[in-house]
Here is the input.
Amino acid sequence: MTEGARAIIEIDGVTKRFAGAITAVDSVSLRIREGEFFALLGPSGCGKTTLLRMIAGFEIPSEGRVLIDGQDMSKVPPNRRPINMVFQSYAVFPHMTVFDNIAYGLKVTSVPKVEIRERVMEALELVHLDGLGARQPDQLSGGQRQRVALARALVKRPKVLLLDEPLSALDAKLREAMQLELVRLQHTVGITFIIVTHDQQEALSMANRIAVMESGLVRQIAPPSELYEYPNCRFVADFIGKMNLFEGSVAGLEGDRLVLEIAGLGRISVPAEGPVSGTVSLAVRPENVRLHREPPSGDSISLHGKVSEVAYYGDTSFVYLSDDSGRTISVNLQNDARSATPSVTIGDEFWCVWAPSDCVVLDT
Here is the structure.
């Protein structure tokens, strides 16, 4: 997928209202490029699945329109759209063999038997299920059943594959393996994948671009690294990964530095990256914060606190400290020295220190 690739999906001013004046999707406009792995990310109830279902044709927009490959889908039923969909529950037919499950969509559209066999065998190889065509679904693992669902969707050679929380039923290790498998598949077949997920790590690790949704609105669309490092609002900053947020206001501008008054931090200056004024939030990622025993020198930003909680995750630990006002700040420590003795314990006092260049200033 290249930056200049044409749009395969165009969503123009789409709104979806349900009974009781519930607006599930609110005036969404976006373009999804041909050959792109695109993620719709957000908390439960944000409208991401409703938007996916409107692309599929299972829901009709209250306003706006959906175009696929340049064609307005307003009067095109789901079975006539050049898309296929993989559901959270896999929807694998329990009474059919793996081969027949994958072949089903081809049989109902009267594809010749010889071609069906060729395409099913090709699909089995694509999802690494060679030799398992005669098995029943109950003889497969969860990951294998998910691959059957993927093969059944891909065998019809759609222009767009829609994935609705396809990995949420898998355990953590298998989910991670299937994330890599989906990326490999998408690169191999070269078609557009659109995945709906509430899992930030899943979206960050798989997608070329991500649309973050909140309450029916798209808050930001960007590649994973841009979303993580340069969120455009407090919601995105707080939703993508972990973030420390401090409230304050703009006190002025000194050259290329923005002067802020931040509660608990006092008067600080940070690089000015865009026009902001009034009330703001200062954001810094936990991995950019260092713990010092002594007060820092120089132009570092610092906050004194006492360790209130330590969460150990093997390779990393999340340390939570509270200052005198009760504010909590989280710090990500790498456990790079082999030891059974924790380097930080509850009650320890530290200075939390970070560089002004590690801050993001957000309009609230």
Remarks:
- The first strand starts at residue 7 and ends at 18.
- The chain has a mean pLDDT of 89.
- The chain has two domains: 7-233, 242-363.
